[in-house]
Amino acid sequence: MNRANKTAVKTVMAPTAWAEPSLPDGGLPSVFTVGSAAKPAKAVSVGILSTYPPTQCGLATFTTSLMVGLIADDPSLFVGIVRVGPTAPSFHDQDVAHVLSSDSEAESQDAARALNKFDVAIIQHEYGIYGGADGEQVLDILELIQVPVVLVVHTVLAMPSRRQRYILETLTQSADSVVTMSATGRRRLLDDYRVEPRKLRLIPHGAPATTDLDRVPRTVDRERPMVLTWGLLGPGKGIEWGIDALSAMDPQRPRPRYVVAGQTHPKVVAQQGERYRESLTERAEREGVAHLVEFEPGYLSAERLRDLLRDADVVLLPYNSDEQVTSGVLTEAMAAGVPVVSTDFPHAAELLADSRGGLLVPHKDPAAIAAALIRIIAEPGLAQAMSTHNTSLTSLMDWPTVAGQYRRLFEALLRRSSVSSR
Question: Are 79 and 70 spatial neighbours (Cβ–Cβ below 8 Å)?
Fold first, then answer.
């Protein structure tokens, strides 16, 4: 591995305050150095830098699932977490090697020191989880890591700010391998960012392994069909458009019940309490569909989600965002064999473009959502065909399979690192 001399890097990546760097004509500065110690041919230990429970967010859930998948794929592998806050004691601390609790230089150094004890480091990247403007603290940490680094990119903005672009480009330049979870994310990196194509790896978002019972293609309960949306709630989730879609349906025909499961995002609660959820309840009452909308608030365990997916006839993703290049909810719904109706954000447009696994609708369009839901519920054979298609993808998406791709990537990086250090 080749992560450059640290003195030179410091002049390029200011550790605390942002300043637009002066880049040479050849592009980004080199930030690689050669590790001196011989590396093993197989990873014995992997460290992951990320949010992690008790933090409740999509990234923490992803990290938990990846860790479990890696161990299921290779029980001899040790996986440790360098958790980005909080510091309060938790049941999950048994998996935590270190806690990154602030954006101080000393904390960044300690986090890097912890990651250097593993054979390979994985850095999960979202702009909002690390310290500093746009999470620039992650640059200081990566600068000090001496083992091979896999960067997992969860967000690739189509219109980033200059700082956001600089952070992501510097991360991809410094990492040994860059994982995207969708072809759209990969294409954006190649087309819009300065990234070395040889580093990019496309590894799909994982989904829980399913049982034979879960894989049975379903037919719609036409008397009481169920539409499901789940996840952390907050503005942008688009639940209001799902509620409006119910009121747009013919009240003389059976209308589905709409189950909205999951707690409000902790950051939303901190800023505005439960106002968003309350506004949804008021909206359902105003539209005359309160009897059709069921909220299931609170933490959604894996077992409860599995039960909900077994009962669901359609999963609805009415999201407002047109930036999302990775959706764990979409992946899990399809892997569970459930037909999907989704707004055409990038990951959904990629997976549902052929309409075999679900239907795409425009953003903020209740009439289009209503028409899509009615079509899946009412058109003979359609839901079963979509379910069969999605079930056929399950074996490609389960976490042990996905983790196996990461393991092979680790081995390739270690082989390369071992050769370069001789």
Answer: yes
**16 and 116: one domain?**
yes
The domain containing residue 324 runs over which residues?
226-397
Whole-prediction pTM value?
0.84
Task: Check: CB of residue 371 under 8 Å from CB of residue 246.
Answer: no
pLDDT above 90 for 387 = yes
Q: Are residues 139 and 165 in the same domain?
A: yes
- Do both 7 and 74 map to the same domain? yes
pLDDT in tens, 15-66: 333 333 333 333 333 332 333 345 556 889 999 999 999 888 889 999 999 9
Tokens of 31: 């930030």
**Rounded-to-integer distance, Cα 256 and Cα 380, Å:** 16
254 preceded by cis ω (within 30°)? no
CATH number of the domain residue 241 falls in: 3.40.50.2000
In a domain, 70, yes or no: yes
Pair 249, 177 in one domain: no
Let me know whether 317 and 391 are in one domain: yes
List the structure tokens of 300: 């959604």
Cis peptide bond prior to 54, omega within 30° of 0:
yes
CA separation, residue 392 to residues 30, 141, 167, 205, 376 (Å): 44, 41, 38, 16, 19
Whether the CB-CB separation of 118 and 98 falls below 8 Å is answered with no
DSSP string across 125-166? E-TTSSSSGGGTHHHHHHHT--S-EEEEE----SS--HHHHH
